[in-house]
Batch of 3 targets.
Target 1
Amino acid sequence: MSPLPWTLIMIFTMITLGLVSMMIHFYFKNMSDQNYKIKTNLFKIKW
């Protein structure tokens, strides 16, 4: 049993986790940006 496949699996999982966390981060950032825009638009309409 060589350790090479395990290192490849570890690298692959780390890259996948990094990509997933980045996607989640950008998704929530976009959501909060949209909410902020909606709030500012409502504020402008009110005044």
Target 2
Amino acid sequence: DTRFFPYFQNCIGAIDGTHVPITTSGEKAAPFRNRKGTLSHNVFFDWALSHNVMVVCDFELNFTFISCGWEGSATDAKVLRSALNSGFHV
């Protein structure tokens, strides 16, 4: 859309994060509680434990970077900072 081109003309992709629900044993669960710390409602089930995942895709909808396996309690900023420290360039 040409209306938005001036804002995105030098953009090569998009970064976003999401929480993926998981199950784990009771003694390992605490760090995986999501950032709300309460049950989140999903269409399919209730969940409070998750992995925090950050992905980058290009405008062809191809994934160009994935950072997964983070505990649900990890902030988005922590996940991004780790990626930047590992050589990911924004």
Target 3
Amino acid sequence: MGESTATSGGTAWFVVLYARPSTRKHKKWELDGFIECPSNGECLLWDDGKRNVVSRSTLTPAEIANIRDGDEFGFGAYEVQIQEAMAAPRPPVPVIKPATPQLQPLATRNPAKRPLDDGLDLNAPPVKATRGFVSPFASVQAKANNWHLDENEKSAYIEGRIANKLREHQRDGILFMYERLTKCPGGAILADDMGLGKSIQTISTCLALLKNNAIAVKSPADFSTYSSSCTAYPFLICSYDMVLRHHGRLAPLNFDVLVCDEAHRLKNPDAKLRTALESIGAERRLLLTGTPLQNELCELYSLLDFTQPGRLGTSAEFAALVKES
């Protein structure tokens, strides 16, 4: 059974997944949110940003007290799955609209810059793979004569048809992740805001590691968009719900890299999902999140410790280190 209900001022709060009612055997949980359960039983389902009430329901005090991690039940127009009890979330940060920019005459604007060198041949035929899947990081293979993020010995090879879509901050992100994931143990957190291209950066990094050696894990439809040269199947893509149900079958597969999207869901080190992912045992871990950590040092430490376990000592040692710096 899960932990006891957390209360704040007589109100219980829970982190949940929710979706429209479904008759499927394995439900597909679509959205993250919070349930607020005050003492009067008039409960609210909030969205992930705690800006909008999604649904309402009435629960008795006994029903609220008996809620445990993993419970599933109807809540208004939705079905919910309890992830964990929590303290009251911080109020949402107000969104400040930027001032309207002053438009310049067309003649004074800076000309658009090409994101890549003019010498890049985007029409070159794709390089045919000459090998199948090999053990990751076993040996460095010869690289094709396409674009490289870096011109040194450990350059990250990216196919031209992906390279021509990358912006400068995305190239920097790929280099950052590539450098840290080639180490063992290694790991990184990519915390770009929504819309800055975390998916293409992650896919490019995984393919760069795969080109040089082999590896990884990430998101479904994007791989078919950006990669057609994988003749083997080195990527396993699954939801957190599937990990919770089948982590015992995943652990023996010896994954080289674990990529976790929506990583803010791993803040609680005692949550079932966190424990299931740790049991997989991948020594290289990449976390992706666009959700702010609300300036909580313990949350930052929790994600850093999941990325590279033990690297920063205990939570108290990490707090002292931050205070000293």
